[in-house]
Amino acid sequence: xxxxxxxxxxxEGVIEELPGxxxxxxxxxxxxxxxxxxxxFVEAHFTYLGSTGSEARLxxxxxxxxxxxxxxxxxxxxxxxxxxxxxxxxxxxVSVKSNPGQHASAQCGNRxxxxxxxRRSAPVPALRSGETHTLxxxxxxxEMLVFVDNTLVWEGSVGPDALAFDGPVGxxxxxxxxxxxxxxxxxxxxxxxxxxxxxxGGEESE
Length: 206
Hints:
The chain is an all-beta fold.
């Protein structure tokens, strides 16, 4: 299904809606998740428009430009990322953030991250301002696939830690201006009528 601004809970930053159900991001830090339970599938057809101008450092102090997808996003301490790092180095990184018993960024900060080594992978193109690409991630249990422009760029298992929590899919950006057409699976029938609930101020540090 096509994801509109009304379908999203934005926990940090601002997402504006453009005609045609497109989403616009122009702030240094954006975090959001779907306010419905869907299969662990999320796809962003996006145009990268360069830097946001003013830039924010990550919780680690590093300055990074990136855009990514979130899966099994229980909260800001427990989730799975497929991040397209743009600068200072262009690469696709899958990571699990796991902090059992902790649910707020004030508790876990930027702890609990583990980058996952893929069984197989392929390089991603260097993103240039004005270019349009598609980033898609899907999970089946612990197995995860990530595609760029319908080409498989990451395949592997994220391990048992990622199955200890569950939640909706979502998106995240740092210091990148973007226009996005977001797609996700249809809401799960068993969860229809039950939304994850919008938790504001759920900053995610890295």
